[in-house]
Structures are given as C-alpha cells and as structure tokens.
Design a protein that fits this description.
By secondary structure, this protein is mainly α. 73% of the residues lie in helices and 0% in strands.
C-alpha cells in the first residue's frame, strides 16, 4: 500500500512537471498574439478569445502528455495495482485541469478534451511501463 501511495505521488509530480514543461514549450513556440495580455488570470480570462486554435491545442497536449508521463511513472514504481495508480494520477490531473478551466474560461471543446483525455493517456503510459518495478524500495 505504501509503495502504491509513493507511486501515485511520484507520478503526480512527474506529470505536473511534464504539464508545466510542455505548456512552457507551447508558449515559447506559440506566443500569444499581439495585444493579448496573459500576465495574470484576470487579463488572460479577458483575452482568451484572442488566442488561436494552436494555443488551445498546446494546452491539451500538455495535459495529455503530463498524464501519460505521470501514469508511466506511477506504474513503473508500483508493484501491484499499476493501472489503478496510473488512473489516480490521470484523475488528479483531470481535477487540476478542471480547476484551471473554472478560473479561466475555455472553449467547450477544451473542457471535453480536458475531461476525456487525461485518464486514458495515463493508462496508456501505464501499459508501456515495465512489468517489474524498475526501482527497489523497501516496503
């Protein structure tokens, strides 16, 4: 049980870091259009309609990629219940995305993607994890 908890925590940290890095890369590759102030939640909410489709796709790629990596890490560390650990990571990333969407208005298709993608992506990551734990931890 302790190893499963550690697996979920490690998967969540890895997933969150991946989301962060992918979103930073997305903002670097696809900067906001001129005139769109994204310096705070309030200004971003006011300017969200100025963002092109590619910027929204980058957000979904971040959430899906973070879920995939998080699910892989959780399943790699877990000894048993690998899919369950990955699913929990995916669910937590889904909740994080929901919190983001509640703070900043997003198009409906982002809501659908943000709700439907993370858990399957985490489970896909778990499927690619090694069958035996790569890390030996007492417990």
């Amino acid at each position: 049980m302790g190893r499963s908890i550690l697996a979920v925590i490690a998967g969540l940290v890895a997933g969150a870091l991946t989301v962060f890095l992918l979103e930073i890369a997305g903002h670097w590759i696809l900067p906001p259009p001129p005139g769109a102030d994204v310096s705070s939640h309030q200004s971003l909410a006011a300017n969200i309609s100025l963002l092109p489709l590619a910027n929204f796709l980058a957000i979904l790629v971040g959430w899906a990629g973070g879920s995939f990596v998080g699910g892989w890490v959780a399943a790699t560390i877990a000894r048993q219940n690998k899919s369950r650990c990955a699913m929990i990571v995916g669910a937590l990333i889904t909740l994080s995305g929901l919190a983001n969407m509640l703070m900043i208005p997003h198009p409906i298709w982002i809501w659908l993607g943000g709700i439907l993608l993370p858990i399957p992506c985490a489970l896909a990551g778990a499927r690619l994890a090694p069958a035996k734990p790569a890390i030996t931890i007492a417990g």
